[in-house]
């Protein structure tokens, strides 16, 4: 492969005296799904915020297709990195369609003058944005809900809407922050299928998740973050077999946890 | 989906209350309606009051023609009939309709009763005296309360939703008739009770009319008509705007066509235009601005100094259109300057920053800092506008029709309001408008969607301030004097109240809010000392019972907008072919 689509080189983040990230490196090749796991407080979300421009790393850099990402979320999105949030953050009193159309913001040409005087170009642009948004809504499986206020959607649909909104920015990389939090097994399964389909469209994906089973079934490669450091990186098989991961992630495994892991293995197999 | 509703038993308390009243719903409604009609046909006052007879021949001695009902008695009669109609006709969400009508009855009866009692020096004025009875207001009150209770008994269901579509000509007709009715209501509202102090009962007549109008509007809204109409006007936006503007331009030909009301209406228009500008900042972008009137002040000052007034400072006189544009631009620049700190501050802190800016403006203007405001001497003698030799503050006649003085200002201001509305509406349904709303809803998520929030916020301030500056320029010429006194904190707060009262993000809301806030003081001269207190009380009540505002931003139906877009697209393609 040539240059990876997203690359974090030696990213460290220091808040006052707290070292939240210590030289984390992550490589995402085009068309791959990378999982990021780790116990609570391991620095996953901090790392995510470094990738999305919300934080500027204290040292190290983040590159998108070989270019250093700007330190501003809006510009990062413009460059081609889209994200969803751990606790859903839609625009609650906008409709489903409008939410996705906000995602088209960076890809629309419409300036202040066109917005002020609705000429033919405005109408063409709006129609194109609407069509693309509808397409994406159909892609994530939210048909015929255009005029519904997003806050009225059921939880699972809100998650999918957030993904559609992120996809509307035409990203090269999609960052999903706990996409299956609070979902039942069927919804989790559907989300997995959705992420596979997203990969098929040529978008590379980074996923943070607590559900190990979900991550191992989904990702091409998994990185384990513990106390701000990258503990292990590799294919799901490698990571799963690593005793350090089990220990760091779950502590000394009591009987039940072992059973659970066995069960997870069984399902994977 | 039809209008049928599934009544879901909500919390336990209301259900119990409803079940107690439920069997009484219909009987109460019928009784309320009948009593309302009876009340209209009864005398309301037992003796002649000191300030003259109570209007509409409702005083006992003059009660010679009980069936010739006029004024408030006509309103009571109409409300009574409507309650009866609602009780029997198959109307959607009947409970809401009956309740709203009941409130109308109650308010009309209460306002009249209270005034009569106060002016008549005691309860004797409204009830029995020496064997003569005048129970009109008592019966009216009972009717109102019964109807309200009936509303709860029938059950407060969700507002009816009308899904049926109408063909374009029918839609046009509906819109024409509806806006015509609005014009009539506005003219009636302005003129009821006459001008200021000419009628001692002006305040009562006005408030009573407000109660009636509110009741009917509440019923229409409850039945789903208002929602349907707003969706319809959204669908035929261009037509609606044209009809609305035409209606507004017809106002001088109604009873309200005299100099006094032209002036009041023009002032309302100026504040309405400013309120719409503020609505961009507060309603769309969600940035609380407590010093907004300063931009209007800046516009007014700039225009005043270019106007050729004797005390103007710039030494050059610009024609009004040029001066107005310059005023708008200068105000816009200040808007952008004030907007810049908003990159760093949010919410409450932003409100403080804008508050401080407003204060800086007022104090600088008061002390003539910069030397262009004349401080407390103000800039008087700003010449009125004129067009083709017709001075805007003189009366004009078109053919045989003589129009009152100030009518040209009124027309100019209607056009200004229409232009402001167009700017607001177009921006709202655009990439920029969506970005503003996204920022209002969740700023971090908006940034994650690629919206340059800083740029967008400054743009909101800039455009809002530009509109205010434009309104200020008209204000300067209309009033002839520009003084810092007109642009103090209270005005900013009143404008903000107008926006919030009317409904944030809604254009008709902003206009209605501005109209109410600037007409009410005119109409409530009776109260003088209590005016602001009543005003405050009314605000509290409205915010408690209708926090979304009087005319909330009707959520647009995307499909309708889309149809408009496609039509425009087709028209464009066809135009190219031709």
TrEMBL record, chain A:
Q: Supply one GO molecular-function term.
A: L-isoleucine transmembrane transporter activity
Q: Where is the signal peptide?
A: none
One GO CC annotation: plasma membrane
Q: Which CDD domains match?
A: ABC_Mj1267_LivG_branched
GO BP annotations, alphabetical order: D-alanine transmembrane transport; L-alanine transport; L-isoleucine import across plasma membrane; L-valine import across plasma membrane
Q: Which residues form the ABC transporter domain?
A: 6-252
List the PROSITE patterns. Answer: ABC_TRANSPORTER_2
Which positions, given as ranges, span the membrane?
none
Q: Which domain of life is it from?
A: Bacteria
A Pfam family found in this protein is BCA_ABC_TP_C
Annotated InterPro entries: AAA+_ATPase (IPR003593), ABC_AA/LPS_Transport (IPR051120), ABC_transporter-like_ATP-bd (IPR003439), BCA_ABC_TP_C (IPR032823), P-loop_NTPase (IPR027417)
UniProt keywords (A-Z) are: ATP-binding, Nucleotide-binding, Transport
Name recorded for this polypeptide: ABC transporter ATP-binding protein
TrEMBL record, chain B:
The keyword Zinc is annotated on this UniProt entry:
no
State the protein's name. Answer: Branched-chain amino acid ABC transporter permease
Mode of membrane association: Multi-pass membrane protein
Q: List, alphabetically, the InterPro entries matched.
A: ABC_transp_permease, LivM-like
**Transmembrane region positions?**
27-47, 67-88, 100-118, 124-149, 170-190, 202-226, 238-254, 260-285, 292-312, 318-337, 407-427, 458-476, 496-520, 532-551
Annotated compartments: Cell membrane
GO MF annotation: an example: branched-chain amino acid transmembrane transporter activity
**Keyword terms, alphabetized:** Cell membrane, Membrane, Transmembrane, Transmembrane helix
Q: Mostly located where?
A: membrane
User: Which ranges form a coiled coil?
Assistant: none
Q: Which GO terms describe its cellular component?
A: plasma membrane
Q: Which organism is it from?
A: Lentzea alba
The keyword Transmembrane helix is assigned to this record: yes
């Amino acid at each position: 492969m040539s240059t990876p689509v997203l690359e974090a080189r030696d990213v460290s983040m220091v808040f006052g005296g707290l070292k939240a990230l210590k030289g984390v490196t992550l490589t995402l090749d085009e068309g791959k799904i990378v999982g990021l796991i780790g116990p609570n407080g391991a620095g996953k979300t901090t790392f995510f915020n470094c990738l999305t421009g919300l934080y500027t790393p204290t040292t190290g850099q983040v590159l998108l297709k070989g270019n250093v990402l700007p330190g501003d979320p809006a510009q990062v999105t413009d460059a081609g990195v889209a994200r969803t949030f751990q606790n859903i953050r839609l625009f609650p009193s906008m409709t489903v369609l409008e939410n996705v159309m906000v995602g088209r913001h960076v890809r629309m040409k419409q300036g202040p003058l066109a917005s002020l005087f609705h000429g033919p170009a405005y109408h063409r642009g709006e129609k194109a944005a609407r069509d693309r948004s509808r397409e994406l809504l159909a892609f994530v499986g939210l048909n015929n809900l255009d005029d519904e206020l997003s806050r009225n959607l059921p939880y699972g649909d809100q998650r999918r809407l957030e993904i559609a909104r992120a996809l509307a920015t035409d990203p090269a990389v999609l960052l999903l922050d706990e996409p299956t939090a609070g979902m039942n097994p069927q919804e989790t399964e559907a989300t997995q299928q959705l992420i596979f389909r997203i990969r098929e469209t040529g978008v590379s994906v980074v996923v943070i998740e607590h559900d190990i089973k979900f991550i191992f079934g989904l990702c091409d490669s998994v990185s384990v973050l513990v106390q701000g450091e990258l503990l292990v990186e590799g294919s799901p098989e490698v990571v799963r077999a690593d005793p350090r991961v089990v220990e760091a992630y779950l502590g000394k495994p009591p009987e039940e946890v072992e059973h659970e892991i066995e069960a997870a293995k069984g399902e994977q197999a | 989906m039809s209008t049928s509703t599934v009544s879901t038993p909500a919390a336990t308390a209301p259900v119990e209350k409803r079940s107690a009243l439920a069997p009484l719903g219909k009987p109460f409604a019928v009784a309320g309606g009948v009593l309302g009609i009876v009340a209209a046909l009864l005398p309301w006052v037992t003796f002649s009051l000191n300030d003259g007879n109570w209007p509409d021949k409702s005083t006992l001695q003059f009660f010679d023609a009980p069936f010739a009902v006029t004024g408030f008695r006509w309103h009571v009669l109409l409300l009574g009939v409507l309650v009866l109609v609602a009780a029997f006709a198959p109307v959607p969400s009947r409970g809401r309709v009956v309740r709203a009508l009941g409130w109308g009855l109650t308010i009309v009866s209460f306002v009249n009763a209270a005034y009569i009692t106060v002016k008549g020096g005691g309860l004797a004025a409204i009830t029995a005296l020496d064997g003569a009875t005048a129970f009109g207001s008592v019966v009216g009150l009972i009717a109102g309360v019964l109807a309200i209770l009936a509303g709860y008994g029938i059950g407060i269901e969700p507002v009816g939703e009308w899904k049926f579509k109408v063909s374009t000509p029918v839609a046009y007709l509906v819109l024409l008739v509806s806006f015509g009715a609005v014009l009539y209501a506005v003219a009636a509202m302005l003129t009821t009770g006459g001008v200021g102090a000419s009628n001692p009962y002006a305040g009562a007549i006005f408030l009573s009319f407000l109660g009636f109008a509110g009741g009917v509007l509440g019923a229409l809204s409850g039945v789903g008509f208002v929602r349907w109409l707003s969706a319809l006007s959204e669908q035929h936006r261009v037509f609606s705007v044209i009809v609305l503007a035409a209606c507004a331009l017809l106002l001088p030909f109604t009873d309200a066509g005299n100099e006094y009301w032209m002036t009041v209406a023009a002032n309302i228009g100026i504040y309405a235009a400013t309120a719409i500008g503020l609505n961009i900042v507060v309603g769309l972008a969600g940035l609380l601005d407590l010093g907004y009137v300063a931009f209007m002040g800046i516009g007014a000052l700039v225009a005043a100094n270019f106007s050729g007034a004797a005390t103007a400072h710039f030494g050059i006189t610009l024609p009004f259109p040029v001066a107005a544009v310059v005023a708008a631009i200068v105000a816009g620049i200040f808007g952008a300057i004030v907007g810049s700190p908003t990159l760093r501050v949010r919410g409450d802190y932003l409100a403080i920053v804008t508050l401080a800016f407003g204060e800086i403006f007022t104090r600088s203007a008061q002390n003539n800092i910069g030397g262009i405001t004349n401080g407390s001497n103000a800039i008087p003698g700003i010449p009125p506008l004129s067009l083709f030799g017709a001075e805007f503050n003189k009366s004009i006649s078109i053919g045989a029709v003589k129009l009152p003085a100030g009518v040209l200002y009124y027309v100019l201001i209607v056009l200004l309001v229409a232009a402001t509305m167009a700017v607001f509406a177009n921006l709202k349904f655009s990439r920029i408008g969506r970005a503003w709303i996204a920022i209002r809803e969740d700023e971090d998520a908006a940034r994650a969607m690629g919206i340059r929030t800083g740029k967008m916020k400054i743009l909101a301030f800039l455009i809002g301030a530009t509109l205010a500056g434009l309104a200020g320029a008209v204000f300067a010429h209309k009033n002839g004097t520009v003084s810092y006194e007109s642009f103090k904190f209270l005005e900013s707060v009143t404008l903000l109240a107008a926006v919030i009262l009317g409904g944030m993000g809604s254009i008709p809301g902003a206009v209605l809010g501005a109209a109410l806030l600037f007409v009410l003081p005119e109409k409530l001269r009776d109260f003088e000392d209590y005016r602001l207190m009543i005003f405050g009380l009314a605000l509290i009540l409205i915010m408690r019972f209708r926090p979304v505002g009087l005319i909330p931003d009707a959520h647009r139906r995307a499909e309708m907008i889309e149809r408009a877009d496609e039509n425009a697209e087709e028209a464009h393609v066809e135009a190219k072919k031709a």
